[in-house]
Amino acid sequence: MNGGLVQRLAQLNLIRDPATVGTKTLVITRPRQHPVHPDDGDTDQETDRLLGQQRSDDTGFYDEKEKEANKKKGRSKEVLIEGVLFRARYLGSTQLVSEGQPTKTTRMMQAEEAVSRIKAPDGESQPSTEVDLFISTEKIMVLNTDLKEIMMDHALRTISYIADIGDLVVLMARRRVLPTDDSGNSIQKTPKMICHVFESDEAQFIAQSIGQAFQVAYLEFLKANGIEDHSFVKEMDYQEVLNSQEIFGDELQMFAKKELQKEVVVPKMKSEILGVVVVESGWGSMVPTVVIANLSPTGAAAKCGQLNIGDQIIAINGVSLVGLPLSTCQNYIKNTKYNTAVKLTVVPCPPVVEVKIRRPDTKYQLGFSVQNGVICSLLRGGIAERGGVRVGHRIIDINSQSVVAVPHEKIVNLLATSVGEIRMKTMPTSIFRLLTGQETPQYI
Question: Are residues 212 and 260 in the same domain?
Answer without folding.
Answer: no
